[in-house]
Amino acid sequence: MFDNITIRMDKKNQLELSITKDGIMSVLSFLKNKGYDHLHVISCVDWIDDKQLELVYILSAYMKQDVPGETEQLNILLKTRIGRDDPKYITSIALFPAAEPYEREIHEMFGVDFQGHPRLTPLLLERDYDIPPFRKDFDTKQYVDNVFGSVPSVEGEDDS
Amino acid sequence: MDRNQLKKWFQNPVKMAHKYSLHVVYFCTGCGIIEIPPSITARWDAERFGIIPVATPRQASLFIIAGYVSLKTLRSIIRTYEQMPEPKFTVSLGSCPINGGMYHDSYNTIKHLEKYIPVDGMIAGCMPRPEAIFVGVTHLWTLIDKDMADGYKRYRSNYSAYRANQEKILGKLEWPPLFPIHGEE
Questions:
Q1: At CB < 8 Å, which residues of chain A contact B?
Q2: What is the mean predicted confidence (pLDDT) over A140-156?
Q3: pTM to 2 decimals?
Q4: Cβ contacts of A131 on chain B, cutoff 8 Å
Q5: ipTM of this model?
Q6: Which of B71, B154, B168 sits opposite A126 (nearest CB)?
Q7: What is the average per-residue pLDDT within A89-101?
Q8: Within a domain: B180
Q9: Is B169–A140 a contact, with Cβ atoms under 8 angstroms apart?
């Protein structure tokens, strides 16, 4: 049913699934139907050397009784990689409405365009950034020197 | 009462009243809020010094900015400061408003607060203890006595430069200028 899926279980309560980017929606809906209906967070990792962005969906059952036969809470990490240049992906709001703020945040911090998202407006930031600030090639020190360092001192002008 | 104090009361009663009834509006971000409740409640009772927290900036005369200032909070800080009636004094708490502190290379935290609004006193520390707030306030009394806590006057006279700095960081501000802006300074 699922192609190219890598399964790892390094820790006791943590299942790691790596999939290609086409398969993630079917895996998400499969897991949701199995009882893992609680989306904790969507996070993003910038693998700059591989020229890829990794999206991580963290799921678990809201209560362990939701999954038959489960005795302990199991966290499922669902990983997929998308291209780093002009990253596009589809939204998962239809499955998990809680994905909306996370996708907005990833859109403004990493520049991933979630297609089908109703409003990808800025969530946390005030300014426009040329490079989204959480990407690895965003040089914070240089940015601070350029933007905040260039603001002149008012009192200094007053004294001289 | 000290005789010198009595003399000051007769010479300039308005200034003494300002000095001993500082009504404070707090702007607390992050760790700054931790230091404020002990300082205004029984342990370090700030009302000994005439410092009393008020509900809105329109009733306040002292503005304490505690903690780091991000771009969104800078917008609110400017709005709060402009709503306060004169005379108004600003004291910043912690090292973040002075030069960024531990956020010196953050993309979203402003580094020098005094470039955007006038600051009368800065209490350094990360975070300063509540005693440091009172040391700062008693120092502010001295400044008020000597007419050196003149941040609101500097804001009025240098308003064009302050507004230019604010717009440089925040983009176009959606509220009208508080004072008339001169074409060139």
A1: 124-127, 129, 133, 138, 140-141, 143-144, 147-155, 157-158
A2: 84
A3: 0.83
A4: none
A5: 0.77
A6: B71
A7: 90
A8: no
A9: no
B121 domain-assigned = yes
Structural domains counted in chain B: 1
* Chain A environment of B75 (Cβ under 8 Å): 126
The answer to the question of residue B152 being in a domain is: yes
Which chain B residues in 74-113 lie under 8 Å from chain A, judged by CB atoms? 75, 100, 104-108, 110-112
| pLDDT higher than threshold 60 for residue B138 | yes
pLDDT of residue A155: 65
Cross-chain residue pair B108–A141, CB shorter than 8 Å: no
Q: What is the model's pLDDT at position A1?
A: 62
Q: Which of A125, A154, A157 minimises the CB distance to B108? A: A125
* Dihedral Cα B140, B126, B97, B32, nearest 10 deg: -80
For chain A, the three-class secondary structure string (H helix, E strand, C coil) is: CCCCCEEEEEECCEEEEEECCCCHHHHHHHHHHCCCCEEEEEEEEEECCCCEEEEEEEEECCCHHHCCCCCCCCEEEEEEEEECCCCEEECCCCCCCCHHHHHHHHHHHHCCEEECCCCCCCCCCCCCCCCCCCCCCCCHHHHHHHHCCCCCCHHHHHHC
What is the predicted pLDDT for the residue at B158?
Answer: 87
pLDDT for residue A156: 56
- Residue-range definition of the domain harbouring residue B158: 21-170
CATH number where B58 lies: 3.40.50.12280
Q: Does residue B183 sit within a domain?
A: no
Residue A115 clears pLDDT 60, i.e. is over it: yes
Q: What is the predicted pLDDT for the residue at A159?
A: 45
Calculate mean pLDDT across residues A42-48.
92
Per CATH, which fold does A6-139 belong to? Answer: Beta Polymerase; domain 2 (3.30.460)
> Where along chain A do its domains lie?
6-139
Identify the bridge partners of residue A59 per DSSP, sorted by sequence position: A39, A76
Distance (Å) from the alpha carbon of A47 to chain B's nearest alpha carbon: 21
pLDDT at residue A160 in the model: 38
